[in-house]
Design brief:
The complex is a heterodimer of chains A (187) and B (173). Chain A is built from 5 helices and 7 strands; from the N terminus they run H-E-E-H-E-H-E-E-E-H-E-H. Chain A is of the alpha/beta class. Chain A has one domain: 2-Layer Sandwich (Beta Polymerase, domain 2), CATH 3.30.460.80. In chain A, strand 4 and strand 5 form a beta hairpin. Chain A is elongated, with a radius of gyration of 23 Å. The model of chain A has no long low-confidence stretch (mean pLDDT 88). Chain B has 5 helices and 6 strands; from the N terminus they run βββααβαβαβα. In chain B, strand 2 and strand 3 form a beta hairpin. In chain B, helix 1 runs antiparallel to helix 5. The longest helix of chain B has 16 residues. The chains are: A alpha/beta (187), B alpha/beta (173).
Chain lengths: 187, 173
């Protein structure tokens, strides 16, 4: 697939934000800083006809030590995949999000459909999307502690979820009402 | 009307006989009630994951659960069997318990598949390690997912279990 020509335009318009760009399997990828992500997305949508947000997800790079050492990668990155309905081109933006300031501008003002995707990112990776209209957990229960897809999160979780403990207590309490085969009624 | 002869009775199963022409059953109440219950297990239409697909196949024409009197009911209030068909997540567990609590006695629980029996391969933060952590499970069906034949075997096992019950019809709780 031929190049979209967006990368050079981005490099001209946002020289301070574009960290690195490359092509992989014919796909254009741009690594950016997070500060002007809303402007970059708005530029891509309005100036480059990238009108469709295919997906939005987050990556935890904490185990890619050599990559973080290069000063291009931060601990987290939010990955945006855009597609153009008119030119049939696609581009991927990888916005770097540091561990100590784990937040990024929400793009719900540009694509309302990003709402649920950003909530999922927040829920599982703990990235805060500022100016998101309703940043709540979407998959885990609302009172869940921690963000399960972070690399430091243990597979079996941190402690037990309070709701599940309540359920087990309740089922223990209701067990006295269960039918027991040893218990015989009127024959 | 004459004397009722042993030969006039139609034997349905051990201890339960039918009197032709009188629409009456003869036998110990336990046996008759158990026979009726075992022949009309109505599971609630409730699937959790991929096992639910196998459960649907078991209900469709090739395997045909209807021939056992097993008819899926869309309301827990009309059902007397809950098939845990799939992975039980911790977020879903209170909902499953609520469905079970809405079912009237007598009620039975089948754990279908590895996940519902023991958590299966999902020994993780989000998955309940077996339905018996919060529900009284009657029959465990192994498999990932179990074939419809295995589900039918499990339901037949449940029928056998029901047939051995004593006095469940009059138990005061």
């Amino acid at each position: 697939m031929e190049s979209t020509g967006i990368i050079p335009r981005l490099e001209v318009s946002y020289p301070d934000d574009v960290l690195h760009s490359y092509q992989y399997c014919g796909q254009d990828v741009v690594l950016t800083r997070k500060k002007h992500i809303l402007d970059i997305c708005s530029f891509i949508r309005d100036q480059c006809a990238m009108n469709h947000l295919m997906f939005l997800c987050a990556v935890d790079n904490s185990r890619r030590k050599e990559a973080i050492g290069k000063n291009e990668y931060e601990r987290f990155e939010v990955v945006y995949q855009f597609y153009s309905m008119t030119t049939k081109h696609s581009i991927r933006i990888r916005a770097q999000v540091p561990d100590d300031d784990c937040s990024i501008e929400s793009i719900t003002s540009l694509w309302p459909g990003a709402d649920c995707l950003e909530r999922e990112c927040f829920d599982l990776m703990g990235i805060h999307f500022s100016s998101h209209p309703d940043l709540r957990r979407i998959l885990m229960p609302e009172d869940w502690k921690g963000h399960p897809l972070r690399k430091e999160y243990p597979l079996r979780g941190i402690g037990e979820w309070a709701g599940y403990e309540t359920l087990k207590e309740k089922s223990l309490e209701l067990r006295t009402f269960d039918y027991r085969s040893s218990q015989k009624g009127n024959e | 009307m004459g004397q009722l002869n042993e030969n006039d009775l139609v034997k349905i199963k051990d201890g339960v006989s039918f009197i032709p022409g009188a629409s009456a059953l003869v036998g110990p109440l336990n046996r008759i009630i158990n026979w009726g219950r075992a022949g009309s297990i109505w599971p609630v239409t409730f699937g959790l994951a991929c096992c639910a697909i196998e459960m649907m196949v078991a209900g469709s024409s090739t395997n045909d659960l209807d021939r056992f009197g097993i008819i899926f009911r869309a309301s827990p209030r009309q059902a007397d069997c809950l098939i845990l068909a799939g992975t039980i997540t911790k977020k879903m567990a209170p909902v499953i318990r609520r469905v079970y609590d809405q079912m009237p006695e007598p009620r039975y629980v089948l754990a279908m598949g590895s996940c519902a029996c023991s958590g299966g391969l999902f020994d993780t933060y989000a998955v309940v390690q077996g339905g018996d952590n919060f529900l009284p499970v009657d029959v465990y069906i192994p498999g990932c997912p179990p074939r419809p034949e295995a589900l039918i075997e499990g339901l037949i096992t449940l029928q056998k279990k029901i047939n051995q019950e004593q006095g469940r019809w009059s138990q005061l709780v």
